[in-house]
Amino acid sequence: MESIKEQMKMPISLDLHMTISKLAEKNEIDKNSALEAGAFVAAQFMESVKKTKFENNQGPLSKEELKAIFEVIGEFYSESFKGQFTQSDFDTITQKTMSLIMSPNKDTTISNYFKKLME
Asked: What pLDDT was estimated at residue 4?
């Protein structure tokens, strides 16, 4: 049976790739925007998993699921930005993600980020 991390790897990696590609296409890519993209993708994925689990009466996100999400994102950045991604950068993504998730208007903030990106 596939691990939680393996189940999450493909959708998260695709979202990150598409988001960062869209930023690059719009010439809006720099280190800060790449890190912000990671935070928004993580937050959006967490909210999606949380909603699915709620609908299926499976409770909140587990520590294992949270850890898997951040591991997949960390690995994506390490592989995609060889030598340019540090622990401090990973901490920035984690902090920004948690700030987004804890925000009272997180759904609107996350939705607006992706809507603006697609314009």
From this structure: 87
The 10s digit of each residue's pLDDT in 47-87 is 999 988 888 888 888 999 999 999 999 999 999 888 888 89
Contact 44, 15 (CB under 8 A): yes
* Contact (Cβ atoms closer than 8 angstroms) between residue 64 and residue 8: no
* Three-class HEC string of the chain: CCCHHHHHHHHHHHHHHHHHHHHHHCCCCCHHHHHHHHHHHHHHHHHHHHHHHHHCCCCCCCHHHHHHHHHHHHHHHHHHCCCCCCHHHHHHHHHHHHHHHHCCCHHHHHHHHHHHHHC
